Amino acid sequence: MSTLTKSVPKPSQAFTTRQEGILDAAETCFVRNGFHRSTMQDIAREASMSSPNIYRYFVSKEAVLLAMAERERRRAADRIAQFEEAGDKRAALFSTIAYYHLEIPREGAVLRVELWSEATRNSEIEAILREREEQSSAWFIATLAALATSPNCDPVALYGAISALLKGIIVNKAVFPAFDIDPALAQLHALLDAGLAGNLPVQPCRNRTAP
Fold first, then answer.
1. Are residues 181 and 128 in the same domain?
2. In this protein, which residues make up the domain named HTH tetR-type (predicted)?
3. I need a labelling partner for 148 at 20 to 30 A (CA). Which of 55, 132, 190, 198 fits?
């Protein structure tokens, strides 16, 4: 006796558009009030819809955040692909860095930090962010390797150095509205120039005995 399987119907365009609007409203709420202080009622109000109706689109606030993280991961992948279409890897590298770290508005930085914070408590959010980090690091390392001007360039170590700096920029933008990015930007360019030339600063040995 054969078993018939039913395919899951694809959401209508109207349904998808409404979900996108709810995610935009949730971003506004999470930036303004934080994830834990925001409620589904707050999100519904921001999206100009009734509280019961919002549950047709998302079963919980956690589901909203999960969809938001997935949307951000998808957008990042699409944006990097667009930058690469020009065929200039150096331009793609700096365009990606500028778009996601240097030019990000404070609201975007606050939301990024909210996602990072929730990932320490929510395994599904952590999995999405981990996958995004793995994809991002693979792209950065391959791009840095292609741009290396010396065989001594260590693209893995270079990515580790600039990644820490870029994440620090996001945190500072989120926490300090008057954060001056110029010193960090100068440090970023110095790291890239030195690392691509194979002159990345070496961490001193911690076990070295003082004379």
1. yes
2. 16-76
3. 132
